[in-house]
Specification:
The protein has 140 residues and is of the alpha+beta class. Helix content is 39%, strand content 20%. The chain binds inosine-5'-diphosphate. It is an enzyme of class 2 (transferase).
Length: 140
């Protein structure tokens, strides 16, 4: 299997509850390596730009407001099959549907405040990583 990189975000509901370390442990225990990481307060323009693909969705305004409601931790995860692997570790978007042992099952508050973001394809991972990180900031 190929070594891939994916973009992860620990969302404001999780940073507010001081869950960064517990969430990072899930990645590391499941074979993903955190090869870049920084804590940021997103601006409205940055959040809108990052979620541009969702601009037409009914929840876009609420999602942007939530994502700027507190700091986030943006990170690059690296490992075998990292994009799909991270989606498995995260669990389903709605925590009510998330499998046992996933981050969203154990920590998410709601379908919106669902603790983590993870890229959904290799192509989106490359775009999302370059949104937040320069290559020199990533040490694999
Ligand atoms: P994903 O994060 O599991 O890839 P997406 O469908 O891409 O899910 O949605 C992006 C984010 O938008 C979700 O993680 C969640 O925070 C928010 N979201 C998705 N669906 C809803 C909804 O029905 N109401 C409110 N927020 C939503």
């Amino acid at each position: 299997m190929a070594i891939e990189r994916t973009l992860s975000i620990i969302k404001p509901d999780a940073t507010r509850r001081n869950l960064t370390g517990k969430i990072n442990a899930r990645f590391e225990e499941n074979g993903l390596r955190i090869v870049a990481q920084k804590r940021l307060q997103l601006t409205q323009a940055q959040a809108e730009g990052f979620y541009d693909v969702h601009r037409e969705r009914s929840f876009f305004g609420e999602l942007v407001a939530f994502m700027i409601s507190g700091p986030v931790v943006v990170q690059v995860l690296e490992g075998e099959n990292a994009v799909v692997r991270n989606r498995e570790i995260m669990g389903a978007t709605n925590p009510a549907n998330a499998a046992e042992g996933t981050i969203r099952k154990d920590f998410a508050e709601s379908i919106e405040a669902n603790s983590v973001h993870g890229s959904d394809s290799l192509e989106n991972a490359a775009r999302e990583i370059s949104f937040f990180f320069a290559e020199i900031e990533i040490a694999g």
